[in-house]
Amino acid sequence: MSRMVNCVKLGKEAEGLPAPTYPGELGQRIFDNVSKEAWQQWMSQQTMLINENRLSPINPEHRAFLEKEMENFFFGGGSATPEGFTPPKD
Does 10 score more than 80 pLDDT? Predict the structure, then answer.
């Protein structure tokens, strides 16, 4: 049986992550309070932030920015959308 969490992002009980996906205290908060579905939403958001802002995950400043955005995405007012971003049309 899968682990269930009360997902802070979706506002409902949903299937939790099978293992922590991020290190440290923030990673534990995410593991305890974020569903698999919400984590996938973050992965899409993170990809958009990396691409639109031309970030490099190996750059410490860029990693710090992404971590801040991840915390805002799950536990704050949401993650920022880059200025001028237009989502692709389906």
Answer: yes
CA-CA distances (angstroms) from residue 68 to 5, 33, 36, 59, 82?
22, 17, 20, 14, 15
* Contact residues for 80 (Cβ-Cβ < 8 A; gap 6+): 49, 69, 72
Token output for 50: 């990396």
Per-residue pLDDT of 26-76, as tens digits, reads: 999 999 999 999 999 999 999 999 999 999 989 999 999 999 999 999 998
**CATH code given to domain 4-75:** 1.10.3880.10
Entry pTM: 0.85
Determine which helix (DSSP H) or strand (DSSP E) holds 13, and give its type and residue range: strand 12-15
Domain ranges of the chain: 4-75
